[in-house]
Design a protein that fits this description.
8 helices, single chain, alpha/beta, globular, about 250 residues, 13 strands, about 30% helix
Length: about 250
């Protein structure tokens, strides 16, 4: 019997019975298991050598959703783009600086090892800022819809209900995986990708112009989506995304 590919899944920090705890919604793990993978949720620690050992044994990395990313991580990139550094920072919600640092370390380590990488919501944003990209601190305050387009409520539901559509570029890796030119998605975010990081291409766009997916065509599998496909991983076409990711992880063994 073939071994399931081992896929690292990042977790959030929370509080349980007065103690700091790690949290990962079960639908992330369920999506990986359903696609044939073996998810491993690992702790946040300042011992980054521990992450290196995880990466040496892993076949893939999934960067999950969670708290806002600390603006200091991309402030200099905003300044290079002529954006006032402190503009809107008061709109940033809860942050976890240790998680930011850990995920950036994991991302670079996974890239160096040629591991497949899937980013979801916050995960896609981490992927973008890691390579010099920027974020909108808060879409309602900082993003104007594309000319002639209606505004979209991006932080709409917490239960995975469909919120809006995205246009998927047909020549993209994502388009090839999903086989769709338009996709109805859920929307659980108030921040989003502003300027693309080096090497990335936008592969899905919301009707208001917000970037909804990014990818690196030169990588074995490096794809980030702004929506939460794990809520719908048991149905097509979302299942194809996890099947392709886990399949790429199996080939990386």
């Amino acid at each position: 019997m073939a071994h399931r590919p081992l896929i690292l899944a990042t977790a959030s920090l929370t509080t349980y019975l007065g103690e700091t705890a790690f949290r990962l919604c079960e639908n992330y793990a369920d999506a990986i298991v359903r696609a044939g993978g073996l998810p491993v949720v690992f702790p946040l620690t300042e011992r980054f050598d521990v992450y290196d050992e995880y990466l040496d044994r892993a076949d893939g990395l999934m960067l999950t959703g969670g708290a806002d990313i600390e603006p200091a991580r991309y402030r200099s990139a905003l300044e290079r783009c002529g954006v006032e550094a402190l503009s809107g920072e008061r709109l940033v919600g809860e942050t976890t600086p240790l998680r930011d640092a850990a995920e950036l370390h994991l991302l670079f380590g996974a890239e160096q090892r040629g591991l497949p990488i899937l980013g979801i919501c916050r995960g896609a944003q981490i992927m973008n800022i890691a390579h010099g990209g920027t974020l909108y601190h808060d879409l309602d305050a900082q993003h104007a819809p594309a000319s002639g387009a209606l505004a979209i409520v991006h932080n709409e539901y917490m239960d995975g209900r469909i919120s809006h559509t995205v246009e998927i570029k047909g020549e993209s890796v994502l388009g090839g995986i999903l086989g769709e030119s338009e996709l109805a998605v859920n929307s659980l975010h108030h921040q989003a990708i502003r300027d693309l990081g080096a090497g990335y291409a936008a592969s899905a766009i919301a009707p208001d112009g917000v970037i909804e997916a990014i990818e690196r065509p030169d990588a074995p599998f490096m794809l980030g989506v702004q929506w939460h496909p794990e809520y719908h991983a048991s149905t097509e076409p979302m299942a194809r995304l996890f099947n392709r990711f886990v399949g790429a992880c199996a080939q990386a063994r």
